[in-house]
C-alpha cells in the first residue's frame, strides 16, 4: 500500500509538474505508511530544486492531515464551493460560525 503510493508520487514528481492532483493520497494505509506518504508530500511541496514551485491539490476527509499538509482549504459540498480559506481560518470555529455554517458543522463532526 504505502510503497505503491510512494512510487506513484515519485513518478509524478519526476515529471516536474506545476500542479499535482491527488485524491485521498493516504486512504487505506496504516499509520506508519501514512506518515511516510505525508512526509514525501511535504518534501515534494517544498522542493527548492524545482524551477517553479509546485501546487499540490488533494482531496481529503482527514482533518488532521489537512492541518498538517494544507495551506488553503476549499470546502465542497453538493458540488458547490462553500468555503475557500487559509487553513488556519478554516479551523477557526468563531470565523466559521458566522460565515460558513456548513463547513463549521463538518469540522465539528456534525456533518458527513
Sum this structure up briefly.
Helix content is 47%, strand content 21%.
Folded structure, characterized:
The protein contains six helices and four strands; from the N terminus they run αβαβαββααα. It is of the alpha+beta class. The protein is globular and about 45 Å long. Helix 5 runs antiparallel to helix 6 (101-107). Strands 1-2 form a two-stranded parallel ribbon. A two-stranded antiparallel sheet has the order 3-4. The protein has two domains: 1-60, no CATH class; 71-112, no CATH class. It comes from Malikia spinosa. InterPro entries: ABC_transporter-like_ATP-bd (IPR003439), Molybdenum_import_ModC (IPR050334), P-loop_NTPase (IPR027417). One of its GO terms (molecular function) is ATP hydrolysis activity.
What topology does this entry show?
Blueprint: H1 2-14, E1 19-23, H2 31-45, E2 55-59, H3 63-69, E3 72-77, E4 80-86, H4 87-90, H5 93-99, H6 101-107
Parallel strand pairs: 1-2
Antiparallel strand pairs: 3-4
Radius of gyration: 15 Å
Quote the beta fraction: 15-25%
Straight-line N-to-C gap: 26 Å
Number of separate domains: 2
Kindly state the number of beta strands.
4
Low-confidence stretches: none
Q: Count every helix, treating DSSP H or I runs of 4 or more residues as helices.
A: 6
Amino acid at each position: 500500500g504505502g510503497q505503491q503510493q510512494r512510487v506513484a508520487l515519485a513518478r509524478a514528481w519526476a515529471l516536474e509538474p506545476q500542479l499535482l492532483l491527488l485524491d485521498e493520497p493516504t486512504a487505506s494505509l496504516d499509520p506508519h505508511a501514512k506518515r511516510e506518504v505525508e512526509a514525501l508530500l511535504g518534501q515534494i511541496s517544498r522542493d527548492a530544486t524545482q524551477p517553479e514551485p509546485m501546487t499540490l491539490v488533494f482531496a481529503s476527509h482527514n482533518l488532521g492531515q489537512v492541518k498538517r499538509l494544507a495551506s488553503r482549504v476549499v470546502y465542497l459540498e453538493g458540488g458547490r464551493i462553500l468555503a475557500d480559506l487559509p487553513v488556519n481560518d478554516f479551523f477557526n470555529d468563531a470565523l466559521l460560525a458566522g460565515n460558513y455554517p456548513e463547513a463549521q458543522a463538518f469540522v465539528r463532526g456534525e456533518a458527513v
